[in-house]
Amino acid sequence: MFPGGWPGAGLLVLRLVAAIPLLIGGHSDSWGVPHDVLYLRFIAMAVGSLLLAGLWTPVAGALQAIVELWIILDRGGALGVHLMLAALGVSLVMLGPGALSLDARLFGRKRIDIRT
Asked: Is 61 within 8 Å of 91 (Cβ atoms)?
């Protein structure tokens, strides 16, 4: 489904709220991080970029949930924030990208005329 109008704008806001913490957190911590955690930062920035563009949104949402749960298990810290971001990722998997995304442009509604 690729809803437009207000529901599509709501999904755009949901994608932005999910992507921005990944981009900020992945970028700010990527310098000076030990090499064993560096790959997680690059994955977080890639997932944030995919969500920001609305490309492969269900896959990116699932990856966001995995990354956030990994951060909880690896570092602990702000449990509530990471659980909320994981829930946002799962909700994007269930709801989809909306009409204001690259997914809608690439895989959007197609009209098929069947003539007999």
From this structure: yes
Q: Which residues contact 67 (CB under 8 A, 6 or more apart)?
A: 22, 40, 43, 44, 47
CA dihedral 92→93→99→102, nearest 10 degrees, is: 100
Residue 93 counted as domain residue: yes
- The answer for residues whose C-beta is within 8 angstroms of residue 91's C-beta and 6 or more apart is 14, 61
Structure tokens at 82: 């990471």
The per-residue pLDDT for range 5-63, each reduced to its tens digit, is: 899 899 999 999 999 998 887 655 555 555 556 777 888 889 999 999 999 999 999 99
Q: How many domains does the chain have?
A: 1
